[in-house]
Every structure is written in structure tokens, then in C-alpha cells.
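--- STAGE predict ---
source: upstream dedup step, 1 unique chain passed
mode: sequence only
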Amino acid sequence: MLLKRWVAAGSGLVKRALPGYCAFCLATLEGEASWCSACYEQLPWNWPACPCCGDQLTSDHQALCGHCVSKRPAFEAAHVALRYALPINTLVHDFKFNARPRAGMLLCELMQDSLPSPPFDAILPVPMTPERARDRGFNQARWLAFELAQRNGLPMLEARRLKPGPSQRRLNRQARFANLAGAFVIDTPPPRYVAIVDDVVTTGATAHALALALRRAGAQRVDVWAAARTPLVVDDA
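--- STAGE serialize ---
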């Protein structure tokens, strides 16, 4: 019921929410938490999920999703605590398209729930094309990576995009992977264990291309660390 109140009221609640009040239902809080326990429990947790790519599994008895069984991506594991569903999708939209730092901070706090132990040696945000960065005004993945790096005392790496390519939004899974082949390069030798940071993982094509670039540059293990995972549809196979 608490989350339904948040959804019905619209995304403006995130803008108005202040420390001391639940970001989802605006109930008064005690301590430093950003949400009440009732709203936290009702969030769309990503379970069961494929340990490799983070896609939703139909049964907790599955070891991997069908895509990872047929061909594993270049990254080792995806640490994605939540699914891209209400209210997380609205939170991501407020952050990505309205540049609301409060929404970004909430996503950072939720991402901390999926931080592995021991943690990464460094993190790398998904880079944007210059055209998209100009249109949007900021790179949400870089913003998240910077905040998470500060919170966890991690260095932040950078990737350089070699080719712009068409937008990924209207491409299926196979086309996305082909579109990004050889798209990135890492100019500075990375440490052993690196995490690619993004707000949302869809097909994993971008993370796969970045993981290949990191491995070519010397990384021994590459994971993905994101706020939410969208479900893969059958047509993407």
C-alpha cells in the first residue's frame, strides 16, 4: 500500500522528499535511513536472477539464464539488486531525464546492497557519445560511479568510445552486440578486478563490449554493478 501511494502521487515525491522522511511514502523516519522498512521490503528485488547477467530467472533452481548458457558475456557477474519496475523505473527516469540528484543518491544507496565482498579494485562508468551527452546534459552512469567511488574509496577509470554507432534503443539483442563490437578502448592499464557501473542493464551488450576492452587492457576480472535490470524478451534471442 505504501508504494501504491507513492506511484499514485507521481514522481514529484522524490523531488520533495528530504532526509528524515521516507523517499517513497514520506513517512517520518528515525535514524539516517532514506526509506521505511515497509517500502523497502516491497521494492522489486531482482530474485531469482542469473548470477552472470542479472536477468530474471523463471525458477530459483536454474543455474544460468538461457542466453548465458548458450554464450556467456565477457563480464563475470552482474550485481543488480533491483528490477526495472515501479517505483524503481520512475526513480531512474527522474534521475536520468530530469537530473534530480536526490533520485541519484537513492539509487546509489540501493546499489550498495549489491556490493560484493571483497569489493572491486576500481569502477568504470559506461561512457556516452558526445551527442547524447549534449542532449541530456550529463552522464548518469558517470555521476553514479563518482558517488559510489567516493563512498567506497575506489578509483574511477575512464573508457574512450571509438565509434558513435546508431542508438541502441530500437535494436534487438543481437544487433546491439554487433553495433558495439570494438566500440571502446581503455588507455590506462586497469587493476585486476573492475566493475562497470550503469543505471540500468538491458541486454548487457554495452557491458560486454566494455568488458572486452578492459580485458584487452589487462583486467583479470570484470563485473557489472547497476541499479536495475530490465527483463530480456524472447524476441531478443
